Amino acid sequence: MEQHFCQSCGMPLTDENRGTNADGSRNEDYCTYCYKCGKFTRNFTMNQMIEFCLQFIDQMNAHTGLNLTPLQAKEQMLQYFPHLKRWKEKDNRTLAEKASDLLAQCENVTVSSIDANGYPRPVQMSKIKTNSFHEVWMATSADSVKVADFRQNNKAGLCYDHYGDGVALRGTAEIVTNDSIRKYLWQDCFIHHFPGGPTDPNYVLIHFVGTEATFWINNEFARFSI
Fold first, then answer.
1. Which domains does the chain carry?
2. Smallest Cα–Cα separation from 141: which of 97, 177, 100?
3. Cα gap 223→172, rounded to integer Å
4. Rounded to two decimals, what is the model's pTM?
5. Residues 192-217: pLDDT tens digits?
6. Distance separating alpha carbons of residues 218 and 99, to the nearest angstrom
């Protein structure tokens, strides 16, 4: 019997691992890890899918009887994946839309402030709200070093990446203490850091807005002002 492979990740297809269409029927092209209920499970680019698959290199080698290094496996995927149905079809998303999907996949971002000596100070933070690919809200303590930096100098950098694709932004950061906004963006898990709840005086928001962007998405490099 002819072996069929997932037309997204290249996994061998069986009756047990096939994806499902919108009506619940079995899909003949994609595995359940890539396709469920008539939709792809991840808004990946081809490059992201390759990077994602590389984490399963040991299972791949065990299944095929090969002993490929991650570099060798990646080279093979770069040759093979463009022939799969999902990646042969043109991705009509704009670069901004791809970047927005990328940001949605990221739990954390890296934010850089400028300290009193003029040096960048990057820290990783959890995002709590986004708008498009260049606007991010984060929660932090009013007495933190980064808040002191931004109060002195609102110039900021922010970057995020996921499975090989990434975006770097330059812009400004505003410290938000407005009670209605703080309440609107409050999350229950914040109580561990701010026992006073949404009105805790030490609970503030950082609102980053990018004005310049550098993209590296699906091996495409671009830079422009927003």
1. 18-90 (no CATH), 98-225 (2.30.110.10)
2. 177
3. 18
4. 0.88
5. 999 999 999 999 999 999 999 999 99
6. 11
